[in-house]
Amino acid sequence: MRYWSILFALAAVFCIGVFAYAPFSPNWWLPNPPGEPHHVVSTFGRDIDSLFLIILWITGVAFVGTQIALVWVAWKYVDGPGRVATYFHGSQRLEVVWTIIPAAILVFIALYQMGAWASIKFRGSMPKVQPLAEVTARQFQWVIRYPGPDGKLHTPDDLYTVNDLHFVKGKPALIHLRSTDVLHSFFLPQLRVKQDAVPGLTIPVWFDSDRKGDFELVCAELCGWGHYKMRGKVTIHENQSEFDEWHAKALAEQNRSQLAVAAGPNGR
Amino acid sequence: MSDLAHAHPQPHPAPDHGHASGHGHDDHVHPAPSNVLSKYVFSTDHKVIGIQFLFSGLIFFAIGGLLALAVRWQLAWPWSDVPVLSRALWGNPSWGYRMPPESYNKLFTMHATIMIFFVIIPLLTGAFGNFLIPLMIGARDMAFPKLNMFSYWCMPFAMVFIIYSFYVEGGSAEAGWTSYPVLSVARWATPGSLNGQTYWLIALLFAGVSSLMGSINYITTIVMLRAPGMKMFRMPMTVWAMFITALLQAFALPVLTSALVMQLLDRTAGTNFFQPFGHTVANAPPVVGGGQTLLWQHMFWFYSHPAVYIMILPGMGMVSDVIATFSRKPLFGYKPMVLAIAGIAGLGFIVWGHHMFQSGMNPALGATFMLSTMMIALPSAIKVFNWLGTMWGGRLQFTSAMLNAVAFVAMFIIGGLSGIFMAATPVDMHIHDTYFIVAHIHYVLFGGSTFAIFAGIYYWFPKMFGRMMDERLGKIHFALTFLFFNGTFFLMHIIGLHGHPRRIADPTLYDFLNNPAVTGMNRFMTVNAILLGLTQLIFAFNFLYSIVLGPRASENPWHANSLEWATTSPPAHYNFERIPTVYHGPYEFSVPQHATDYLPQTEPRPPQAGPIDPVMGDA
Q: Considering the entire predicted model, what is its pTM?
């Protein structure tokens, strides 16, 4: 009978083992640039990851403690010849202790992370920069509209790309997120950004990166049969001139193809 | 001292027992119906209705489980031929029987819908609530037996609609079990929204009506029909949990019902509650008038977050009873346990926004929902400590029921702790809508609710069917289920924190997921899921075999105290020959200087045992 506790111990050891191994493998741990499994590329990504680690340690200690207690009682107090159960209904002191301590820890976590949340999502704390682009989600693509040479959105010289997001390393990027049909969600796993795109709302989202590279844009809200392949490419340029170079090239491409197709009267 | 007041049991208790008066019950023993139809089919007997819920729930459990296996197959080996199912479900030879992506969306949508609305809620509240409440409080039946019958017979309508929806044009609903608009209301947005979603809504309306009638019955029965001496604070935890769950249902369900009706009207009557002004999807004509997309999410989660507690609280109650019985020890902190359930239920009404942290809802509102969500972990923690305290110093008997109950505690710890990650709004930004939440919900609903259902079946099977289940098979079933359950669901935490989104048909499309580790984990989970499914065949065999050929059960095979064990197995139509009188709470195990290690609620406590702690105990 007592060996049943080993089964419970086995499950707990498996769970702990998985989380002990995970940080050592870049494909198990949080998604980060290849070769640098512990390098988070975005500013608030660092806040999010450190918060994740704090909660992982706190819950880890709670997990280990409760599982040890459970395995211990299952081993120690198992039915056997001569064993008599003790007769008691509880302990007020213990109830108070195990109410106040978890309550204090939970309130600590709650208050501790409030600042990070406010700095990421509150509109007042968003960087005061010109929007990089307007990102419009639709089944099943990301239409991204950058300001043209005049630096303003919603003018005839805007640059449009599909599933292709570009921004510059080290500069906060602010986008206006919209949806034209159903709910979508703008998810950059390596940058720890997630925000639903809601029909009828224009939601500002900001992020940055301290590293150039290519990442992926994922739709994280079920949006229909093609949801699984609503994937975009994210390119982070080393500096502004590299971005400008790409922008000019893309714009030239766009205007050329427009001339070839229709040559509209006002350049739209 | 209430014990002294009952020192002389009276055949007809004095009227000062108020609600719990036994008057009238003894005089109105209805004979069991002799007609087969009214005895087993359209029965008003709570025991028969409970067993009807049990059978239909278990059948749907098998259906929901098979859908999940098809989901797992696709994730492990994307776009490969699913054995058997491929040809049966999407048998189109022109695409080589490969699963179309919309079928994948249907699979997870219907898996969740069936498991939540047709398996877990009906099994916990429908099957165990119906069967146990009158027996445990010493009543002859529910307060409204006919309403109870209607409550069950709403379910077949729901079942027919949900199964029929697979066969309508466009197939079944595929907007997720949450059915977020606009995807679910715009008919051309995806094939399942063409017709399937309408049937989904109608099915859920029927299931909701069933739950609502049940909950009204439970509340009334528990308040009005308790046996003499059965004070509220002498009720078993199962009854307390069912009572509070019924209150949750009664207050939350109307909101879901109105949301379902609103969506149904949007889809069929041309109203527009959930789309912005002039909105158009998939080149359909623009809608008339203007609505709000997030409105649905608020209304849906105002019900569905309490629904998560509807799916766990009865399990907590049942597990408390099983653990106390097989620890041969009074429940540790009976009153704190009751208060914790009430606390979870109360807080459960003000945490729904934590499903909407990334939804575009005002982030300041997110901060307040975060605080209430953090605090709801507290009563859950208190319950875990009390279960450990109950086992501490006990004399643990690892029966199949006890093993499943201990597994509930062990696994609920994981499900509870992983909730804290998502309650922290910034961390939720990363893990929201990833496999981390899939892991969390399965640790609560399988690790929690389902192990509680298994514990409940092993524990009350003798009372339900008058026969014992096979303990050896029960233990084999438990050990394999426990191992394969962890093998199936634990690694979901890892791929979730690595960013694997939920509800995508093919993870290999993404560079950050297309690596041997994630693919390997997905395959490992699928193999475990298949083995987990096969293990349930042991349970099915044990269950069906024991109903017919199991050894006969005695009245009280586990030496438990609560009232259902004070009558025959299975109980007669009228439950109790005479309504019992109750002298103390249900957890008087191992009372010192008592001949046996249990003391049924129908026997007075020996005076030398001393008074029960009035703050902690069930006095």
A: 0.93
